[in-house]
Design a protein that fits this description.
By secondary structure, the chain is α/β, with parallel strands linked by helices. It has helices spanning 23-45, 49-67, 126-140, 150-159, 180-185, 259-276, 291-294, 301-305; strands at 8-9, 12-13, 72-81, 91-97, 108-110, 114-124, 167-175, 210-215, 219-224, 231-233, 246-250, 253-257. It is built from eight helices and twelve strands. The strands form three sheets. Strands 5-3-4-6-7-8-9-10 form an eight-stranded mixed β-sheet, sandwiched between helices. A two-stranded antiparallel sheet has the order 1-2. The protein has a two-stranded antiparallel ribbon with strand order 11-12. Helix 1 (23-45) packs across helix 6. The radius of gyration is 23 Å and the shape is elongated. The relative contact order is 0.14. Mean pLDDT is 83; it is low at 1-15 and 41-51.
């Protein structure tokens, strides 16, 4: 390769030809700038690393909250539970069904109502990546299939109703690595098979577990349990994006990464996943109730109206 020839990664030249910027280019650049400004403020002004991490979680949660329609609830620092009493580790962000979620539940969400769980890292290292994966795995260990009444069992079989486990995401503002290959090696495809075993047909379509990883300074990684193909993208910086870009490398070739494009790719993939994600309509919160809450006696009419005139 001559010095004048730009490297070609996956058929994409670096840098691509200059193009006119449209509305969405400006929009996501402004969203990133706001997110970056908040992050810099938190990192400079807050004295405790834990507080910095918490505020950075809130910042990206707010971006997601504004990006998604109101049917998707977005909660920070929450737990996910199943009907057998298992509890996940504390999740940085939980995206749940806000239309059917009981309003009295706060910070604790039945897994059957959870679309996605996101772990957020201010600066991701190999150690922090493992920590994020372990936290997400605690969600995969929950029984996500709802307890169904005979009516819903029949409908599930007849209508081939699908129910997916929560999608799993890891989001980082930065990494401590200098190459995309190093970043990508932190995330093993076999992670998707930790936890509750997925069924090949449920009842007709396979249950799919999804893992998406994004670091603004590296790129995006997509994995799905139904195939062994891992997709990886680097958001190449062009035009105004060069000024805010980060350096990484692929096959020892320098690449400029546009964090605003990385953010767009992450949000677009999240939105697409949520649209395709299926929660079972037959879920009933009473499956979480103990026998104590369900203890009652029915009082017949005879008891009420007997000797009514006396």
């Amino acid at each position: 390769m001559s010095p004048d020839t730009p490297p070609n990664f996956g058929g994409m030249l670096h840098p691509p030809p200059t193009e006119d910027r449209n509305f969405l280019d400006y929009y996501f650049a402004s969203v990133y700038n706001k997110l970056e400004a908040d992050t810099l403020l938190f990192n400079r002004e807050l004295p405790h690393a834990g507080l910095v991490g918490s505020e950075n979680e809130n910042a990206i949660a707010e971006v997601i909250r504004q990006f998604l329609p109101p049917k998707y609830g977005v909660e920070v620092n929450a737990l996910v539970i199943d009907r057998f009493g298992k509890v996940s580790r504390q999740a940085d962000i939980v995206i749940f069904d806000a239309e059917r979620q009981a309003s009295f539940l706060r910070k604790v969400y039945p897994v059957e109502m959870v679309y996605a769980v996101i772990e957020v890292k201010t600066s991701m290292s190999s150690t922090e990546a493992k920590s994020a994966m372990d936290n997400l795995a605690s969600v995969s260990e929950l029984e996500f299939r709802p307890a169904l009444t005979p009516y819903w069992e029949n409908r599930t079989q007849n209508e081939e109703i699908r129910h997916d486990p929560p999608s799993l995401y890891a989001f980082a503002y930065r990494t401590d690595c200098q190459s995309f290959e190093t970043f990508a090696r932190w995330f093993d495809f076999q992670f998707l098979f930790r936890g509750v075993k997925l069924r090949d047909k449920a009842p007709k379509y396979p249950e799919i577990r999804v893992l998406r990883v994004c670091s603004l300074d590296q790129g995006v990684i997509h994995m799905e349990s139904t195939n062994g193909y891992v997709k990886r993208w680097i958001a190449i910086a062009t035009d105004a994006g060069v000024a805010r870009s980060f350096n990484t490398s692929v096959q020892r070739q320098k690449v400029l990464v546009d964090p605003a494009k990385s953010l767009f790719m992450f949000l677009q993939r999240l939105w697409s996943d949520l649209q395709e994600h299926e929660l079972h309509p037959g879920f009933d919160i009473r499956s979480y109730m103990s026998s104590v809450l369900g203890t009652a006696i029915e009082v017949p009419d005879d008891f009420i109206y007997k000797n009514y005139d006396s």
